[in-house]
Amino acid sequence: MRKTSIAVLLGALMLAVVPATAFTVGEQIVLKVAVPIPRSQEVAIEAKKYNDKLAAMTDNKVQVRMYWGGAAGDDVDVLRKMRAGQMDGAPLSLELCSQFVRQALVLASPALFNNYKQVDAARQALTPAMEAEAYSNGFKIMAWGDVGRLRLLSKKPVETLADFKKMRPWLYPQSEMLKEFYRSIGATGVPLGIAEVYGGLQTNMIDVVWGSALVSAALQWHSGTSYISERGLGFISGAFVFRRPAWDALPKNVQESMTLLSGERAQTNQIDVRKQDERTYQRLVQRGHTPMRAKNEKEWWDAGKALRQRMIGRVYTKELVEKAEQIAAKYAEAPEEIAAAKK
After folding, report:
1. What is the per-residue pLDDT across 279-297, written as a single tens digit (0 to 9) for each?
2. Domains plus CATH for the chain?
3. Under 8 Å between Cβ of 105 and 205
4. What pTM did the predictor assign?
5. Alpha-carbon distances, residue 27 vs 19, 61, 62 (angstroms)
């Protein structure tokens, strides 16, 4: 993975530009941050640079300790440890964020967003209230973001829902929407934690997974698959989150600096990650993955729309979905834009 995507995953390292004069605490603050990507020489060097800069600018008052590649457990373990005060920050999926801000899953509504303008507009309009809810429930959301287009990666071609039902698809245990989707189309999912997906592909326990090209490459899922969706089926979103006690322990002027800097960096880093996701997709194709396109895209979108309606009242309100739908309609692609994307 390149440095720009690392900057998004390591959002806590925005601390590196906080001025030293902001800190008056007597003891060093060590923020423990868990990230799912494996430790490599490149990311380790980048993290050390941030920590060196952080130490210099805060008179060695603040440091970030990284727990790489599942060292702190899977994503569920990390959230549990954050609640227990054993871990301070991590990037979390919307499914896990929904445990402390329930309606966050509206940002993952199926068959709703098909371009980034829609995603950005919905996030800008809907997340302020969600951030307040998260804070009241013990978590500080530093930044929302996405890590690319949701695609299927598989060992055999998946062109129809019937093809999908014949396979052994990965089921993310935390996703109520995915469980309901499988029930509705008659598919049997194989529940595995994120850290178990790679092994599941290698042992043929599963033969199809959901993920962006960027995430799939970072977690090595691509090595166990041969096909990848040509067009995205949605977007993979989440947030970088601190537990509230760790955030509240920081001096107020440091919090203000972090909030300002995270906002300034988030947009630039987000654009970089989206570009990298597209480049990663192209590289996977160039290196042997076969692009696959649905024979009838409408059946997938119809199934998604039906699922979105069934989830009203279970994970989000009707009013919130209608607001998201209005935003999506406002920023929908014109027919000529859609045609150009298919070429």
Report:
1. 999 999 999 999 999 999 8
2. 3-342 (3.40.190.170)
3. no
4. 0.81
5. 17, 7, 9
